[in-house]
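ESCALATION

Customer reports they have been waiting on this structure for their group meeting. Please prioritize. Original submission:
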Amino acid sequence: MIPLSTRMRPSSLEEFQGQEHFLYKGSLLYNAIKNKTFDSAIFFGPSGTGKTTLARLIAREMDADFYELNASVSGTKELKDIIERCKMKFFGLQKATSYVYIDEFHRWNKLQQDSLLQCLEEGVIRFIGSTTENPYFAVNNAVLSRVRSLYEFHRLEPEHVSAVLLRAMEDEERGLGKRKLPFDREALAMIAQRSGGDARVALDTLGFIADNLPKQGRIDLAMVGEAMQCQTTFYDKSEDKYNLLSALQKSIRGSDPDASLHYLARLLTADADILMIGRRLLVTASEDIGMAYPMAISIVTSCVQAAQMVGLPEAQIILSQAVILLASSPKSNSAVTAISQAMNDVKTKRLSDVPAHLKDAHYAGAAKRGLGLSYKYPHSYGGFVEQQYLPDELYQQNVQYYHPGENGREGAFKSYLEHLWKKKR
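Update from on-call: job pushed to the front of the queue and completed.
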């Protein structure tokens, strides 16, 4: 039986989900495909994010011959056979270029990769390579120099995967639509959340459930939990994850490491995603600890990255370290209040231009316009010299956005700034 993920491959660009950072209606890549001007490219990123699918869609839109190889099972012999056929078409009556797609291109050695160079230079083929590795390390520089574009594929967001799953449930030709299976949208959302941004994993999980669903059964949270061997309590109420994340941050803000660890444990037990927890911890590091312990954001970033690399269950140790650090650190919200006040002034006040002495003066004619002439270079004055930096209105109002506190390192920053700006403050 053909897997559901294979049956549900998008048949058009309009069905393609995700990667909006480079593919959307009107983007350069989209227009290149529609205008049939697409050149060679390398796609790189995690599995199940659409690299092979997009390569096939491009070939279909180009209306050109398309050859596909997998570098893990094919070598230069198969490639040379394809190149010979492409040469006959390119140099023959048709004068047409063919597309060659090589999946897992990083598996080929330097000599194998270099076998593409001549035909790329001559324009005999348009090459699309895909890899899960960083192409700057896994692909020869000679090949990279002959490929116009590199496109990095990101893991799909849960909403993208949910859209793919919903289409599979409704599609009567390629999907499960004819079977009219009853399902809960929360169940599809759980599959999407637990698939790690991999559409293939999500679709094949759905296919497994559908093929083994008991008679009169329903695709619900319990069924998904059984299929994915995970708990479903996190998804019983849609607001639970936000309540737990809120409680985690507020407990950290309140300097209660025990309560903070309790809510971290509940999030992990309820199968929360590492990245979801990590994002909240990163925000907390700046919003609630901030200048009181500026290194907190760097340490938490390292912890979140390490947790993702290690994966659960060991990742819980690393996340625990981050939570304990934040809860035990001195607190300051000056970073959030400062930018909030500054943003409010920018949005609500009528402000004059940047002071002339702060404007760029590194081009011919700037001096004639009087730009930068009275600027005082602080390093020429021992590291600090008092001068106007704010626009006129705010300077005259003696506006101050940053109000440093006394906790932790921020007390030292406060003393330093007060010493420098003693006349103003």
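Sent to customer with the following note: The chain has a mean pLDDT of 89.
Escalation resolved.
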